[in-house]
Amino acid sequence: MKKFKIAVIPGDGIGNEVMAEGIKILDTFAAIKGDISFEYQYFPWGCEYYLKTGNMMDANGLKVLKEFDAILLGAVGDPSVPDHVSLHGLLLKIRQGFNQYINLRPIKLLPGAPCPLKDKGPKDIDFVVIRENVEGEYAGVGGIRFPDMPEEIAIQTGVFTRKNTEKVMDYAFKLAQKRNKFNKVTNVTKSNALNYSMVFWDKIFKEIAEGYQDIKTETNHVDAVSMYFLQRPETYDVLVASNLFGDIITDLGAALQGGLGFAASGNLNLEKEYPSMFEPVHGSAPDIKDKGIANPIAMIWTAKMMLDFLLEDPDTEAIIEAITGVLLEGKTLTPDLKGNAKTHEVGDAVCQKLKMLL
Ligand code: ATP
Ligand code: MG
């Protein structure tokens, strides 16, 4: 019996509501397999915690989390807490503190999911964005000079280290080999304008590509990528992007795959020196919280990504098949998908399908 210790941070708003469905799919999967089990410990951290204590998470939070095999996060955010407080107080602290240098974002349109591009379908939208996740434009380096004066200056510096950039790019190439789709990696850059950071980025990309003669490469500026995502998404396989550019294009990707209800992500420390963290891309969605109508598919997909990181088991693909089954059937869908089902009903329906598949 393989036992995994999972730290669960449900967070705020719908984060809390969809988390139950993520746990449900994990337990269903474990029950079917019989040889794995999960032990969960819940942490009440997030904006509600901040409003009570003045901290997004406990001061020794990282020390406590370090003992777990993985972290599952719902969402954090609250209209009364500034976004940069919640982001830096929890999410970035964990990503950077645990050196989760890879942000893994599958952009895959499932059959039955709504795509805003009417001439594109599931076979056209199936690629992965690897986003650098701990440094770059989000390194937190900079400052304000002459605050509130007419001469006020804000400085935000990008930090790109050779070691980290090499590791991120190397992972992109390895993933292209593993996917074996087009055996192609697209370098997302802006080296025409950013003459230090992105020129360096391109240089490392070329160096790493040398070691992967079997993988084709292309280099697109980030503005062009945004256009090509809409015009010809079918040409992509694996893309590698810096923290900021990756952030932006993966939201565009989320739209292509049916919206935030479908966008799942992993923050990975490949060496497993620290736990990795898995979270749906959506936020706490205060407009629909406490109604029990949030779409749990992104969370369920996220749980599947966690399984893939913890174990090598091709059966996890059945979770995606189960989601697809529910979508195609069209009977149990949340209001964002024009249905009238509750969050937990969608979770139950996916688990039911999974039991039939495995
Ligand atoms: P936060 O400040 O925590 O990021 P937000 O207001 O930005 O919250 P998001 O969750 O990022 O909200 O998403 C924006 C909108 O998309 C939500 O207000 C909600 O209407 C919709 N949405 C997001 N996720 C879901 C979901 N899982 N199910 C249904 N609707 C969703
Ligand atoms: Mg948001």
Automatic annotation (TrEMBL):
Keywords: Manganese, Metal-binding, NAD, Oxidoreductase
PANTHER family hit by this protein: D-MALATE DEHYDROGENASE [DECARBOXYLATING] (PTHR43275)
Alphabetical list of InterPro entries matching this protein: ICDH/IPMDH (IPR050501), IsoCit/isopropylmalate_DH_CS (IPR019818), IsoPropMal-DH-like_dom (IPR024084), TTC_DH (IPR011829)
Entry's Gene Ontology molecular function annotations: D-malate dehydrogenase (decarboxylating) (NAD+) activity; magnesium ion binding; NAD binding
EC number: 1.1.1.83
Entry keyword annotation includes NAD: yes
Essential cofactor(s): Mg(2+); Mn(2+)
Catalytic activities: (R)-malate + NAD(+) = pyruvate + CO2 + NADH
Keyword Oxidoreductase carried by entry: yes
Entry protein name: D-malate dehydrogenase (decarboxylating)
SMART domains: Iso_dh
Isopropylmalate dehydrogenase-like domain segment(s): 5-350
Pfam families: Iso_dh
